[in-house]
């Protein structure tokens, strides 16, 4: 881990971004929990229903000094909403962005620990890997391993423990640079796509465990056929991208292995 901290820590100014699409029953509790950490919160309404939009308006009015509300007129996908948050963060001088889902699955109490890691390793992505309770659907749990294997192949490493957990901290500047060069997956393919591409760009990944639950009344926007097709296409593109980067990735993996042995 010492190699990650080789650069001096820049001015650390984090924000939290929450992409929201029809989570009117959960979002208020998530926002209130986030604001306990005295970190600015950016809500991105991704074309939600009137009921959810009303709740978001009320939250912004109640916490106007801490909450910014951005809107997509039409639903564009979770990834597109997070990227809108990145654009706002960059324009307003934030150095790091912590991504939290709006459905209440994430353990918001872990924010302090994740931000501390981001301040310690400012050039790295602090990527959450889920620690599940009994509520996790077993089919979803086992299906994640297919993506894990593809990520290990497409990075030629085990550096990314879980690429699908939407609780993570990014340095803003490298993401803005990546956005200028590549179209990143805008829906359920976003979390894996951006993390693999940032790894390709040379960012290190610090894996942090975080508790994840599945509320009985939780709302899922995963569309089996559409999103599985998007994820399959993403893995295919990443595989061919890995082939183009094969020598570089092999050398990086060899260096990481040697560094671990020295540590």
UniProtKB/TrEMBL annotation:
Cited InterPro entries: Glyco_trans_2-like, Nucleotide-diphossugar_trans
SUPFAM superfamilies: Nucleotide-diphospho-sugar transferases
Chain ranges of the Glycosyltransferase 2-like domain: 15-177
Protein name (database record): Glycosyltransferase family 2 protein
């Amino acid at each position: 881990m010492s190699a990650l901290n080789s650069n001096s820590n820049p001015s650390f100014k984090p924000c939290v971004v929450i992409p929201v699409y029809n989570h009117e029953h959960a979002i208020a509790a998530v926002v209130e929990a986030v604001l306990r950490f005295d970190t600015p919160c950016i809500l991105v309404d991704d074309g939600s229903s009137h009921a959810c939009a009303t709740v978001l308006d009320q939250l912004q009015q109640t916490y106007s000094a801490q909450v910014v509300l951005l809107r997509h007129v039409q639903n564009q996908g979770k990834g597109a909403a997070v990227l809108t948050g990145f654009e706002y963060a960059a324009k307003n001088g934030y150095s790091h962005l912590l991504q939290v889902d709006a459905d209440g699955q994430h353990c918001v109490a872990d924010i302090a620990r994740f931000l501390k890691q981001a301040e310690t390793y400012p050039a790295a992505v602090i990527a959450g890997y889920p620690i599940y309770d009994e509520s996790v659907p077993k089919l979803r749990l086992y299906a994640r391993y297919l993506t894990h294997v593809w990520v290990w192949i497409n990075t030629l490493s085990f550096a990314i423990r879980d690429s699908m957990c939407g609780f993570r901290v990014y340095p803003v500047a490298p993401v803005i640079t990546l956005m200028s060069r590549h179209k990143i997956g805008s829906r359920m393919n976003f979390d894996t796509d951006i993390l693999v591409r940032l790894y390709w760009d040379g960012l290190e990944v610090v894996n942090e465990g975080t508790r994840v639950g599945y509320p009985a009344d939780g709302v899922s926007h995963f569309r089996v056929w559409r999103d599985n097709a998007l994820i399959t296409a993403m893995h295919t593109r990443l595989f061919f991208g890995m082939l183009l980067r094969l020598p570089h990735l092999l050398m990086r993996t060899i260096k990481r292995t040697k560094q671990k042995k020295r540590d």
